[in-house]
User: Fold this.
Amino acid sequence: MIGKLSDFEFNASLNVINDAAVAYRGVIPADRWKDPYMPAQELKEEIQSGMQFYGLKENDVLVAVMGIQPVKNVTLIRHAYVLTSHQRKGYGEKLLRHLMTLAATPTVLVGTWKAAFWAVNFYVKYGFKLVSEEEKNKLLREYWNIPERQVETSVVLKLERQKQ
Assistant:
C-alpha cells in the first residue's frame, strides 16, 4: 500500500533510508559519507523545507520511501530508498510511478550520486535523461540546497512531460 507518510512514521522512514544508504558506502566519495547516512535532524529539515515523503508498506511494514518536492517551476523526486531486504522487487518503481502522478509540473528532476550507477540506471529506465555537466551544475545550485562538494560529485536527470 502506498501513502503519504505521517509524523508517527518518522522513525520507520529513517530506518529505511539508513538501511538502504549502506549501498553508498565505499562508492560515493569518503568525504560525503556519514554514519548514519541521514541523521534524524537532517530528515526533519528536509520535511520542514517542503518535501513530502510517501511510503510503500508490505504487511504493515514500511519497506520503501520516496520524497517529492515542488521547487519554483519544477518538481524534485528526492530520497528514494528501499530496504536492502526488499530491493529489486518493484517497490521503487511503484513509488516513482505514484509520485509522478502527483508531480504538478512538466519538468521533473532527480539528483543522485554520479557513482551510484544503479540509481542512474533506475531513472533512465523510466524515461529520465542525464543532463550535461553545465546544466547539472546550474540545476543543482538553483533547485537544491546542497554543499558544493556534493554538486561536484552528483548528476541530475530530467524528465520533460507534456503539459497537463
Remarks:
- The domain at 2-160 is CATH 3.40.630.30 (Aminopeptidase).
- The radius of gyration is 15 Å.
- The mean pLDDT is 95.
